[in-house]
Amino acid sequence: MAAVIVARRQRRHNRQRRERIFSVRVTLFGMIEEKIIETYRLSGDAILEPLREVGADLDPVTRRSHAVPAMAKLLATLHFLASGSFQRTVAVSSGISQSVFSSALSQGLNTKHGFYVVAGFPKIIGAIDCTHVQLVPPSDREHIYRNRKHTHSLNVQVVCDSKGIITNVAKYPGSVHNSFILRNSALFSHLRDGKYGDGWLLGDSAYPLHPFLLTPRTFGVLKSRFRCLDRTGGALLYSPQKVAQITIVCCILHNIAKRQGIEHDAMDVEEDCHHRPHTGPPNAAGL
């Protein structure tokens, strides 16, 4: 018996402890600017802007030496938004959508002069249109997310200024028509109450307004820059509420890129939101 115990102790002594292997942290240092923009769709300086806004929320709560730092979390999120890949493993922080939204989309609609300079339209406060973002619907409400083309989506209403900066966003299930979204938005109430003076919105045939091509181009740039929003990246594998957050984050980052002068080619976006108006399906609440 003593010999067995001695043998076991000898084996434990000779057994080498497996060394823990940690992957190298993703950082911006050492990357050329072109590669940063290609990978994350933002410049190094532009990436620091949302980091300043939400860094405290993303910092690890543990003191362990290998806790994931805020920068790594942010870069992982940006890479996902840009590529649309690894949807099951990358989580988008709600802190980004909450903290940055309050500062980045509160630009107002004071863009009349810009539209007049660009297109000769007087008194225009914004261009409005809708785009669809594909998703996997909840089984108990599948029907309200089915759009005209029998896919499932969010119908996202966007208003932008003359420079393509997004100034207002509203999200509804994909079966809801453009005009329903507008009439049930805070933006409509502000227009009705004269908050923006005698200004006008420009839209396409889905609205009782004039046609204008600026917003579809903004969608093309937005979806080309952040491929997770485009159908070519596949449906987003999250709840509608999470897809709404992702959409807001992409709009915020689009604005940051525009303000930093980071341009991106627009892709052709085939929209499926121009269908017969209706009052909206049951429980078609904004997200």
UniProtKB/TrEMBL annotation:
Its cofactor is a divalent metal cation. The keyword Hydrolase applies. Pfam families: DDE_Tnp_4. Keywords: Hydrolase, Metal-binding, Nuclease, Nucleus. GO terms for molecular function: hydrolase activity; metal ion binding; nuclease activity. GO terms for cellular component: nucleus. Its main location: nucleus. It is found in: Nucleus. It comes from the Eukaryota. Residues 128-216, 217-255 form the DDE Tnp4 domain. Belongs to the HARBI1 family. This is DDE Tnp4 domain-containing protein.
